[in-house]
TrEMBL record:
The keyword Disulfide bond applies. Reaction proceeds by a ping-pong mechanism involving intermediate methylation of a conserved cysteine residue. Its EC number is 2.1.1.192. This is Probable dual-specificity RNA methyltransferase RlmN. It comes from Paenibacillus cookii. GO terms for molecular function: methyltransferase activity. Belongs to the radical SAM superfamily. RlmN family. It is found in: Cytoplasm. It holds the Pfam family Radical_SAM.
Length: 357
């Protein structure tokens, strides 16, 4: 039974999902257990996907008691579940400390994709995004990010389906919670765990320059997406205050380094906002910035967020924008909208929940 934080004495115990296999081996050694026990625990967590330590039946009672004494399972309490006509399911999960986060399961013809959150709220301040309303509350631990995928997989287990891809595009800026995000990623791709293919995982950043360089040196096959949303410094600063901290040209330079180092194609996410950044001249300028880069542009017709005064780009203007990019040799698609009928823009559900409290 999880106590509310107010009832807790002293520090909270670490989450068992915070530990990777190496950590578990280290823990086993420190507790006088053979190393193979770590593999058994890892298997119970990610292959058998148990809900508590007592279900780990091939471990001794003493070992289970020790685990229970030293670790917590992450509890994600389902506050709201919304199902869209297109099969998208959006969850608002309550955390142990009364904060809430959103996780989304999206159905594609190639399988189930999970969109996870890395922070409670966000401090990046993009003017068209609901995640940032109310600012940043705290970082999630690696285990709290892991738990979102495990929970989604448990839900899919009931239908005999599996998580086939992960996008780290929920609320928050993953590269401002870099260590926890990387630990989460390494747990996800471990072949003895959920074993998600690296090329089926995409991490999205608003352009935290030092950590783009860091990520380039991580030696992974994980995809990188950049929220760009403007073709120049001035407009980007208006839409994304983070651009004042990490200017447009510095972001592009970091991305050129990433391309040189990894040879992996970058996805540029571009939210189209009616009359703001969606005109043919914006498309032409973006094309000139991206020429000669191995990249793909994903155009996102912006969801209407009532708290923001932006309007959606007309269908005609969306296609015009796409045409200008394509004619200039830029690989471009329009994102298929999912969950449009269930407030699926990041942060909308949480913002609604906070209003009602």
């Amino acid at each position: 039974m999880h106590m509310n934080d107010k009832d807790r004495c002293g520090e909270m115990k670490p989450f068992i999902y915070d530990l990777n296999l190496d950590d578990l081996q280290e823990w086993a050694k420190e507790n006088g257990e053979p190393a193979f026990r770590a593999g058994q625990i890892f298997d119970w967590l990610y292959v058998k996907r148990v809900n508590n330590f007592q279900e780990m039946t091939n471990l001794s009672k003493e070992l289970r008691a020790k685990l229970e004494d030293q670790f917590e399972f992450v509890t994600l309490k389902e506050i709201t579940k919304l199902e869209s006509k297109d099969g998208t399911v959006k969850f608002l999960f309550g955390l142990h400390d009364d904060h809430a986060i959103e996780t989304v399961i999206m159905k594609h013809n190639y399988g189930n994709s999970i969109c996870v959150t890395t922070q409670v709220g966000c401090r990046i301040g993009c003017t068209f995004c609901a995640s940032t309303l109310g600012g940043l509350k705290r970082n999630l631990t690696a285990g709290e990010i892991v738990a979102q995928v495990v929970q989604a997989q448990k839900i899919l287990d009931e239908k005999g389906e599996r998580v086939s891809s992960i996008v780290i595009m929920g609320s928050g800026e993953p590269f401002e919670n870099y260590e926890a995000t990387m630990k989460f990623l390494r747990i996800m791709i471990h072949e003895k765990g959920l074993n998600i293919g690296q090329r089926h995982i995409t991490v999205s950043t608003s352009g935290i320059v030092p950590n783009i360089y860091k990520f380039a040196n991580e030696d992974t096959q994980i995809n990188l997406a950049i929220s760009i949303h403007a073709p120049n410094d001035m407009l980007r600063s208006k839409l994304m205050p983070v651009n004042r901290r990490y200017p447009f040209e510095d972001v592009m330079e970091a991305l050129r380094y990433y391309l040189a180092k990894t040879g992996r194609r970058i996805t540029f996410e571009y939210a189209l906002i009616g009359g703001v950044n969606d005109q043919p001249e914006h498309a032409a300028e973006l094309a000139s910035v991206l020429k000669d880069m191995l990249c793909h542009v994903n155009l996102i017709p912006v969801n209407h967020v009532p708290e923001r005064k932006y309007v959606r780009t007309s269908r005609n203007d969306i296609f015009k924008f796409q045409r200008v990019l394509a004619e200039n040799g830029v690989n471009v698609t329009i994102r298929r909208e999912q969950g449009h009928d269930i407030a699926a823009a990041c942060g909308q559900l949480r913002a609604k929940h906070m209003e009602l409290r």
